[in-house]
Description:
Layout lengths: L1 E4 L1 E6 L3 E6 L7 E4 L2 H11 L20 H14 L9 H12 L4 H8 L4 H6 L7 H8 L2
Antiparallel strand pairs: 1-4, 2-3
Amino acid sequence: MRIAVERHVVYTVKGGRKTGDVKSLAGKRSVAIFGDDAKVVAKQTRGKIGDALLFTSADGTSWLPQSAFWRHWHKAVVAADREDLPFHALRHYAGTRYAQTGATVKETMARLGHSSTKAAMRYQHAGSRDDELARRMRR
Length: 139
């Protein structure tokens, strides 16, 4: 399944939610998803047409409130004893994991919608794979 990323939503306390074009040409992209994630998105898209929201509040048409994400995220970070992690940390995790699967910097940039290597590198973090990488280096 592929998801077309063509617009974004910005929320400010003063202005509320506003939809608009993505920040850069690189931000407009098509992202492949597979497995359980694709099943969830496929279920959500059934019957939706045009500019319908993919994920909505209980009424089926309104924006999903940020609290819907925060409530579950907060439980997870408390359970992991990592209350220092903001919800945006998931984007960093995704960039790091994509690179660890073997994606090149350019491929990671395309997936995350970055137009510069500097931005892409900000979303890749060193993991704890030293033992695994050392084993791969042995003769």
